[in-house]
Amino acid sequence: MTKTALIAGATGLVGGHCLLRLLRAPEYGRVVALTRRPLATTDPKLEQRVVEFDQLGRERFDFPQVDDVFCCLGTTIKVAGSQAAFRQVDFVYVVSLASLALGRGAKQFLLVSSLGANPKSPIFYSRVKGETEAAVSALTFEGRQIFRPSILVGERREQRPGERAGIAVMRGVSFAMLGPLRKYRPIAAAAVANAMVRVAVQAPRGVNVYESDALERLGRE
């Protein structure tokens, strides 16, 4: 029997690859994409639902019954405009989505977080990511899969000159990143997406955290 997947954040870097990977996966017969604007992608398996995420828990929205939820929502403080706006996307939207999905019977929640996520971090970005992980982990899904990629490599819609410079530097020294340092190597967004779908198919129970080096191994074609 095939399953139904829901993906939020399919217009993003990891989300775009994850959507395409889900559409190719024989384990999923239906893929529901929650987006703020229509996708250019079409497929017989794909069902698009345009939503306002800040109204998700309040508006009259018929949340679909699905098996697995792939949460690829995320922004940056620069794009969001403030720390409060960043937290709205990376914490409030994510936790609202998870709570609604759990209430509709979803079995598994797969979250794209970030390397260094820690609710006690002095760094605001990492602290919010850690708080989000903790909130999702506390929900009673059969499986809560948390993915912590390092710097992501791939073609983004928006330009991020600082990030491109960081990737170039990291690539230049990545050959020396061995052992415990391996998880800091830049990682292709497509590899993260591949890893997410593979883990979802395996469906391990409980809370499972995958650091970037593990994602690299899991994401190889």
What's this entry about, in short?
Helices cover 38% and strands 20% of the residues.
Protein model, in words:
This protein is α/β, with parallel strands linked by helices and 221 residues long. It has helices at residues 13-24, 77-80, 83-103, 124-137, 161-173, 189-202, 212-218, and strands at residues 3-8, 28-35, 46-50, 68-71, 108-112, 143-148, 152-153, 187-188, 206-211. The protein is built from seven helices and nine strands; from the N terminus they run E-H-E-E-E-H-H-E-H-E-E-H-E-H-E-H. Strand 1, helix 1 and strand 2 (28-35) form a beta-alpha-beta unit. It starts with a strand and ends with a helix. Helix 6 packs across helix 7. Helices cover 38% and strands 20% of the residues. The model is unreliable at 167-171 (pLDDT under 50).
Strand content: 15-25%
What is the CATH topology classification name? Answer: Rossmann fold
Let me know the CATH homologous superfamily: NAD(P)-binding Rossmann-like Domain
Count of discrete alpha- or pi-helical segments spanning 4 or more residues: 7
Give the domain tally: 1
Give the strand tally.
9
Measured distance between first and last alpha carbons? 24 Å
Largest sheet: 7 strands, parallel
Largest beta sheet: strand ordering: 3-2-1-4-5-6-9
Shape by Cα distribution: globular
User: How large, in whole angstroms, is the Cα Rg?
Assistant: 17 Å
Could you estimate the helical fraction of the residues in percent?
A: 25-40%
Order of helices and strands: EHEEEHHEHEEHEHEH
How does CATH name the architecture?
3-Layer(aba) Sandwich
Mean of the pLDDT scores?
87
- Classification by helices and strands: alpha/beta
What is the CATH class designation?
Answer: Alpha Beta
